[in-house]
Specification:
The protein is an all-alpha fold. The protein has 3 domains: 59-128, no CATH class; 132-186, no CATH class; 192-261, no CATH class. 62% of the residues lie in helices and 0% in strands. The chain is built from 17 helices and no strands. The relative contact order is 0.06.
Length: 275
């Protein structure tokens, strides 16, 4: 598999274009930069000798084997050559045909992390729900937040309310980091008692991130959280920015905004006093 650096080829094409057109546009780089999208489209549609006469936009279109294309993607990552958008577009265009090789890449411990992340993005693009349980299991076992968990969470959220019950089943075995991620996802799907209990638990027991979980409660929209929010708003050691987020959550849930009070010694509060 020939891993052609399409980014490098475009940079060279752009360099020649600027050389040939600089005088026409009076070396106005702002104008030239504004034309970049059009120049790129011109590059994609122009037959290239380095592609045997094919245009860049047609090069990957000649391949229909999803496994071959996904392996090619891995080769790009292993060789630290930018993966062409055109290759990713071709894989995504194959839809369900690409699902199996992308799932295999997801479970390949020897694959570069960047290739796995690309597989996650492509599975999301083709709207695959096949990796749902794998994503949930990974998050449940999470010990520390990481980028992969964030991408899995985004994908789970894109799958809609079908993720709610499987996440609920995973909660009893989930660690602290996993419960935080699940709380973020589930806050988007109101009406579940198990979700409300989780959000309340995180809000009341993770004091250093009360502002974050207050925002989740506001999004979830259950007014039963108001008494707990009120108690938190009155806590003497509450940071000012946490107070603001909690007050916003109370308003969002139909409650009254807590009375403003002094936060002497709080750096952010003190800085506002001097504005």
């Amino acid at each position: 598999m020939n891993c052609i650096n399409f980014d490098q080829k475009f940079e060279r094409y752009m360099g020649v274009w600027i050389k040939n057109n600089a005088e026409k546009y009076k070396n106005n780089m702002d104008v030239i930069e504004g034309m970049m999208p059009d120049i790129y489209m011109e590059f994609l549609a122009k037959p290239a000798t380095w592609l045997g006469g094919l245009t860049p936009q047609d090069y990957f279109e000649q391949y229909d084997d999803a496994k071959q294309l996904v392996n090619w993607l891995c080769e790009y990552e292993k060789n630290k050559i930018p993966v062409p958008d055109l290759l990713q577009d071709r894989i995504a265009a194959l839809g369900t045909k690409a699902e199996e090789p992308l799932l295999a890449l997801l479970n390949d411990a020897s694959a570069p992390e960047s290739a796995v992340m690309t597989a996650v993005s492509l599975l999301r693009e083709i709207e695959s729900t096949a990796p749902m349980q794998a994503y949930i299991d990974y998050i449940a076992a999470l010990e520390q937040p990481d980028e992969r968990a964030d991408m899995y969470a985004e994908s789970l959220l894109s799958m809609g309310a079908d993720v709610v019950s499987p996440i609920h089943r995973a909660l009893p075995l989930a660690g602290e980091a996993g419960r935080d991620v699940f709380a973020d996802i589930l806050s988007n799907f109101p009406g579940e008692e198990e979700t409300f209990k989780l959000l309340m638990e995180r809000f009341e027991h993770v004091e250093d991130r009360r502002a974050l979980f207050a925002s989740y409660l506001a999004k979830y929209g259950d007014e039963r959280a108001l008494p707990a929010l009120q108690r938190a708003a009155e806590a003497p050691e509450l940071p000012y920015l946490d107070f603001v987020e909690i007050a916003n959550a109370m308003e969002a849930l139909g409650g009254e905004r807590p009375a403003e009070r002094e936060f002497a010694g709080d750096p952010y509060y003190e800085s506002l006093k001097h504005v």
